Amino acid sequence: EPEVTQTPSHQVTQMGQEVILRCVPISNHLYFYWYRQILGQKVEFLVSFYNNEISEKSEIFDDQFSVERPDGSNFTLKIRSTKLEDSAMYFCASSNPRGSYEQYFGPGTRLTVT
Amino acid sequence: GENVEQHPSTLSVQEGDSAVIKCTYSDSASNYFPWYKQELGKRPQLIIDIRSNVGEKKDQRIAVTLNKTAKHFSLHITETQPEDSAVYFCAASTQAGKSTFGDGTTLTVKP
Please, which pLDDT band fits residue B49 given cuts at 50, 70 and 90? Predict the structure, then answer.
């Protein structure tokens, strides 16, 4: 069964550094998402992306964040200047709304900002 | 924006009993309501979902009900087993895929 994959599984970075989290969505999916989950808390929506542009974004997704689909397979989340409070698990998801809204989550990237 | 409230925050049941988790939402534009099970350190896994044009859906021991007028939906797990122990999240999603999650319910099933 096809799965969403994410790399790296764990990223440690220093405050102020830029990080890029990578995702490979399921190949025939058209919608892509990023979520974050601070340890012990709920899953929070960051952004949805369709047809090479952002469809919706949350208040969390400020100017420090950006998303890109640089080629036909990857979907990336960039955090320009990381803060301590960016430490969280970041999940990528994809869906193909033709027939289903179901979002398939990747295994996540644990980001630790020191 | 959307606000999703989920109750209870923790639920402990005896193996074989039923478990019920309830959520309310605020945005009428939400039209898709998934439930996720998340084990420690793992990704959220969809266990059942319901769209706004349906009142009830069942899949073996799991069922979901939706009251669109009252803006609430519930997860029912019957004949609970220890492996059902996990954190369960409800979510309300719009057409564009923006999903607002509840705070989660930690379900413990005691053998």
Answer: very high
Phi and psi (nearest 5°) for B83? -75, -5
Do A42 and B99 lie within an 8 Å CB cutoff?
no
Torsion of CA A66, A67, A70, A74, to 10 degrees: 140
B94 has pLDDT over 90: no
Cα-based torsion angle of the residue sequence B29, B10, A40, A6 in order, rounded to the nearest 10 degrees: -60
Q: Looking at the complex, does the CB of residue B49 fall below 8 Å from at least one CB of chain A?
A: yes
Question: What does the pLDDT average to over B22-50?
Answer: 94
Q: Which of B102, B95, B90, B97 is nearest to B65 (CA)?
A: B90
- Could you give the 3-state DSSP secondary structure of residue B52? coil
Measuring CA to CA, which residue among B55, B96, B97 is closest to residue B72?
A: B55
Mean pLDDT of B27-38: 93
Sign of the dihedral defined by the CA atoms of residues B34, B39, B41, B47, in that order? negative
